[in-house]
Amino acid sequence: MQWNGWGDPEHDPAQMISESTRALLEQTLGASLSEQPPVPLDQVRPPASRLTQTARAALRTVLGSAGLRDDDRTRIDHCGGKSTDDLLRRRAGDVTPCPDAVLFPASHEELLDVLRICNEQRIAVVPFGGGTSVVGGVEPVAGPMATVVTVDLSRMKQLLHLDEDSHTATLHAGLRTPEVEELLGARGYTLGHLPQSYEYATIGGYAATRSTGQASGGYGRFDDMVVSLRMATPRGTLAPGRSPASAAGPDLRQLVLGSEGTLGIITEVTVRVRPLPHARTDAAWVVPDFSTGVRAMREIARAAPRPTVARLSDETETFVQATLAGRDPAPGSLLVLGFEGTDSEVTRQRAAVDEALRRLDTSSAASGGTHGPAVAADSSAVGDWRRSRFDGPYLRDALLSVGVLTETLETATTWSQLEPLYHAVRDALHASLDGPEGTAIVMCHISHSYPSGASLYLTVATPCGRDPRARWARAKRAASDAIAANGGTITHHHAVGTDHRPWMSTEIGALGAASLAAMKSTLDPAGILNPHKLIPDGPANVTDA
Amino acid sequence: MQWNGWGDPEHDPAQMISESTRALLEQTLGASLSEQPPVPLDQVRPPASRLTQTARAALRTVLGSAGLRDDDRTRIDHCGGKSTDDLLRRRAGDVTPCPDAVLFPASHEELLDVLRICNEQRIAVVPFGGGTSVVGGVEPVAGPMATVVTVDLSRMKQLLHLDEDSHTATLHAGLRTPEVEELLGARGYTLGHLPQSYEYATIGGYAATRSTGQASGGYGRFDDMVVSLRMATPRGTLAPGRSPASAAGPDLRQLVLGSEGTLGIITEVTVRVRPLPHARTDAAWVVPDFSTGVRAMREIARAAPRPTVARLSDETETFVQATLAGRDPAPGSLLVLGFEGTDSEVTRQRAAVDEALRRLDTSSAASGGTHGPAVAADSSAVGDWRRSRFDGPYLRDALLSVGVLTETLETATTWSQLEPLYHAVRDALHASLDGPEGTAIVMCHISHSYPSGASLYLTVATPCGRDPRARWARAKRAASDAIAANGGTITHHHAVGTDHRPWMSTEIGALGAASLAAMKSTLDPAGILNPHKLIPDGPANVTDA
Q1: Residues of A in contact with B254 (CB under 8 A)
Q2: Ranges for the FAD-binding PCMH-type domain (chains A, B) (predicted)?
Q3: What fold does the segment set B1-6+14-42+390-499 form as a domain?
């Protein structure tokens, strides 16, 4: 992973922006773009480590000398995640905050010892899987502590157990998706979890952040896949999940899922796996507009069985993606569906989609809407999405290099609120970005949907301007306020971290915040775990709601 | 509802046991049975109410005079749930513990006021929906308080909102299933949640106990259906669920679900609803034995789409049900499937089942198992289950009247552990019940299954013997210990209440118990809510796990 960008260093993003694309960008964004060269690594120095000799010695006793590293490069590689703000800081040579050391426990038991020592020594502990957080989740914030260490899970990479009768796999938290798929694939299984970050993101990170993959229609959200978890805390082990389903009180798995390292560090996750699919096929349609597409997605989300992938781009994203792929952009909104499974499962998925789209045609005709079919096949777009679907973060680096700021944000709500929310967030972004420094392109797609609602995933591209960090902070605040005011969740699958924390009190209310704070006080009495993330401040100020 | 038995008083259970059935029971159970007439209601007196005049006056100010009742009959009707132990006590004329008064709030706001008063006056509060708990969940235990009131939700019965775009309905907690289905059915929708208790059980109770209905294959568990909830606590309102899915931290809906009135009282639940099905059809098969049936259920649980209903009876239950229905019992295990939806959805469900059963045949043949088809249609059994599926609780009253003790218990685990768990629990029940007082019939079915595991639902019939309550307590303890020792959950859908509480520390561990206790201290600082239920004692004793 690049220290100041995304992904494989061999993959040169500069080639992704042609001269003609750059000219088109200048025209569209209404600004002349200038190169923004990053500060080279050899000119960057992290602050001195504050880890005491006492703590270092105690930790080395548990971890060995290879298990505690505080060289500059290791610390820089763990100085945060991959939000655009993170990259802007690093490109400017700023690698603060930086962990005072990086720890590499090789087992759950070693991690329990590490947490015991850090608890005694009052050292803040930040878990780190693939380091792909885009919300500040892995930023090494010391909070009220004098020292902060990052715990890198990369030495915990085993497939611990595969139960072929139950179709479950127990996986170490440090496994990355390609490693999981290789281990499972050799036995004839797949996890089927493919978020855009899949090359680097880890099993523990997926659980800690409630990740959602691009094939969520068929494989479910990551939290849907989890049968049980094991989490190390300063008080010992919490390992909820005694059976696939239970009525034995509140589901404590759901407290561990989404806890973002604030309650403990997840070391093992037992997940449902599936046999490798026999068949895989894609299809694409064009609908006249986003609004029609939303209704199509709604019907498809209620299909049984559902397609494995269902994704709708709004008119702007449809136009931009066709342009980037060198195709003639057709008017309308692009709907991409993917089908996976046995041959007959694929047949049934397609039949269910056909039925859903027939319902859409019937309701469109009944409401005096479009005449003729609401959807038309667009075979030329079928391959574009599958070829380019993991390119986003690489493209962001290329755009930053030519002075274009890009970032994404996402939310979810019920179907009835989805279009008002979409317009409110778009309007907020345009209002905060369009001006003397240029304008913004705001694209949106729906890639995760449910019988009762769906997510919105927005991508923004705008000139960097004089102060790109301040420019984006304003836009993000405006978009987040619009989400909160229009009934959306502050995050559907990026998690909370530092960036969404100011909106958590609105999201879960004062008693919800107090409940999380009470959990944290129980599992992490000294407050060493991932300080200032997720859980809003002020549990002492709770008043009756 | 009968005060000392199940259901509609017009439904006379005595007619359910013919002379020939009784003779067969005596022969099978190895004991001569004798009539056990219950103490009539007019000979039963509850203890005097301990509610102070101060508290009564304060509560009447909020609720009006109709909203607080402490007449004998109302108190007796709320003196507990419907476990066999509950019925045995009431048939013996014992109606303790009895609530000191029964409160009937008409709104969330009234309930908040009630909780404020009870918090000030240190009055224990037990929520009551349909009163169908079989685990002591609604037993009016005062715990450390001097007084206990039951809060009956039966004045909260509105369909508050139906969102037809999102297919969600916001329902008052006090609505019973037939009322819900009537309200939704008039608008073209169904909830599709039909546990055996459906005639009386309420929406709030389903949420508080993580109920599972007989059509869980198609409609999901109740907790799957929930989009948001509103819960009144002594500290105010907790209302989690801002969108169908979210990554904004731990899912607080899952803390409210299954909380059994210990953290607050649920007043409103927004659930996913479905259009009324166009088509409904059943099918039944016989498999050679339970073990083959388990493999069939496993394949069916992974079908896409799944059938709406899938239920497998073991050899004993298959034999007994055929006998009760007056059919010739065929050897083997009965598999009943139900299909619901549009015509084409039903077609796809059937196709998916056919594919699953073909996989079973292939794997059976490959492992040198049964030759010929592993499953054969049994059309004669198709209707039996649908006709009799809600009769169990009525039949229990009839059996108690002739001196036969019947009770049910349930658990769940992964597919790989299911048969070992089945044998362990059956063996424990037989070991504790078979002896000089007769023997036990132990029947089992699987009615809720998942890709990674399934539930086991056991029904026991045995002579009452000299002390039926002690006899069942021994058997229940032995079965629960066997469940805990063999990796099962202590309850898959009956909840915890008082009866499963001794096994909760094994179920969730010391840190899990401490986490629930911390949540309770936050939401219910005085500990007035449903004392001595669900949450195990001793959070002060937590040691590192």
Answers
A1: 250-251, 253-255
A2: 95-276
A3: GMP Synthetase; Chain A, domain 3 (3.30.300)
